[in-house]
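call fold(seq) -> tokens
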Amino acid sequence: MRTFSTVLLAILLPGATGCVVIPIGDLLKGPALEEYVLVEGDDEKVALIDIDGVIRGDESDSVFFPEENTTAEIQARLDFVRSDSSVKAVVLRISSPGGEVTACDVIHHEIRKLKEEHKLPVVAAVLDQGTSGAYYIAVASDRIVVMPTSIVGSIGVILPSFDLSGLLGKIGVTVSPIKSSEGKDLNSPFRPQSETDRKVLQALVDDMYKRFVAVVDEGRPSLTSEEVLRLADGRVVSGGEAVSLKLADRLGYLSDAIEEAARAAGIKNPTIVRYARAPRSGANIYSQALDHGPSAGEVRVSASAALLGAPKLYYLWRPGI
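ret:
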């Protein structure tokens, strides 16, 4: 049997005699997604779906800690729900500051599609935070339950932008791309941003912001359009204030959200399940589910895209980016 070091050597020295190149990322991704029972009840189930960490729409670029993108992870869990007729309700267990605009929008869309096609009640339970893109996803649910210590809100959009031209000038480095038009390197970190650049990018941000506001307006019928606009200033609030502002429906804990989902589905003694890639000892409703999922990469999520000249828009509460 080949050892880990032998496999690594085969990767580093593909020309070595007798070595077979094996994609190490595939070896380290871990086991397939499986269902785990957290609380044994009757035949009808409530499924916990985790929205955890920074929400991403791409694969991790780490060799030693490969991760599926968030969209793929959530879709895989929703597919489990779709394929199991004994699942009668879903609870979104949210612990996320948000993430990439498109990834958040796709997950929101898939949750709404699940509700419409399968007529399942969906309750969002915000744990430590459900901000920006995570809140965008939460409003796809029928009810939002927040803890007293939850951080909620941050309705808005951000496009990270860096200007390194001054620093590069000090060390004698210049960047002079050959481009087809002035706007081809929009948001480049290697030159100052022109007023025209800023107007183009601001229009893009404004468009994504309008969509966020419209999604909240649709998902929170207890709020008027004017109230949504007033709250969509990027602010974050505590769980208690979120309820008073009608951004959430009630204060409670994960167990309360599960009870609400079961009650909406007409279940008295549900079996509680989650979907994970590896079992954990002492599993319960608070056990982390995304063992090989999208919870890492929070610091690099904005800087890498901007520095590579591939700007991304974020529904993300991450002060300092």
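The chain has a mean pLDDT of 82.
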